[in-house]
Amino acid sequence: MLLVLLVPAAVAAHAMLVGSTPAADEVVTTLPPAIIVTFDESLTDMSSLEIVDAAGVTVATGAVDAADPLSMRAVAPDLENGDYEVRWTAATDDGYVERGTFRFSVSIPTPPPATPEPSAVVTDSPTIAPSIEPTPEPTATPAPGGAPGAEGDGSDSGDVVVPILAALALVGGGLVWFLRRRGAA
């Protein structure tokens, strides 16, 4: 009689959730590579997994893990900080279907902004690139007022002295003429 009571109970068993990554109500600070739910019975292809964000948008879906028929797996996208709900449907070979949900949160600390190195500071002022023009060869220029007749000064000293002497002669002649005229008067 005891055997008759236990056989229907074993046949009528439903898949029960036995674990998950992340766990129900867990706050994760690093993203797992996948969302995994594990059951106590093998699952069929009618089983499904869905991860939904706080706005109700599905961010990932999954199915029975081919390597482990007791688990369903969904590849975790880059989830932003916030609350998420895992919705699962577990179908077993005996035709029973169980559904359930659990929540987890993502709270990944934001790293402080990197401080640039002093040499890497960007400024708004334009920089002027140095010109790459050849420097002309220096040339000798005669010094003004060089000694008359000095060798290599590039000028004839008579060109400067003659007009000066002519001007002095005119001034001197005019002065002599003026003084004589004044004395004769």
Describe the secondary structure blueprint for this structure.
Blueprint: H1 2-11, E1 17-21, E2 27-28, E3 34-39, E4 48-53, E5 58-65, E6 68-75, E7 82-91, E8 97-106, H2 158-184
Parallel strand pairs: 2-8
Antiparallel strand pairs: 1-3, 3-6, 4-5, 4-7, 5-6, 7-8
Which range does the strand content fall in? 25-35%
User: How many beta strands in the DSSP annotation?
Assistant: 8
Shape estimate: rod-shaped
Mean pLDDT across the residues is 80
* Largest sheet descriptor: 8 strands, mixed
Rg (C-alpha, Å): 52 Å
* Low-pLDDT residue intervals, each spanning 5 or more residues: 1-11
Query: Count the helices. How many?
Result: 2
Helicity, as a percent range: 10-25%
The helix-and-strand class reads alpha+beta
Task: Name the quaternary structure.
Answer: single chain
Order of helices and strands: HEEEEEEEEH
Which strands sit side by side, in order, in the main sheet? 1-3-6-5-4-7-8-2
Structure description:
By secondary structure, this protein is of the alpha+beta class. 20% of the residues lie in helices and 30% in strands. It contains two helices and eight strands, in the order H-E-E-E-E-E-E-E-E-H. The protein has an eight-stranded mixed beta sheet with strand order 1-3-6-5-4-7-8-2, with no helix packed on it. The relative contact order is 0.13.
